[in-house]
Amino acid sequence: PAMPTKRFDTAAVCSGRSLIVAGGRDGSNTLAIVEVLDTDTRQWSVTCSLPYPLQRATNLICGEKLYMLGGDGQTGNVTCSVLSCSVPELLQSCQTKSQAGKLRTA
Question: Which residues, 6 or more positions from 77, have their beta carbon under 8 angstroms from its beta carbon?
Answer without folding.
Answer: none
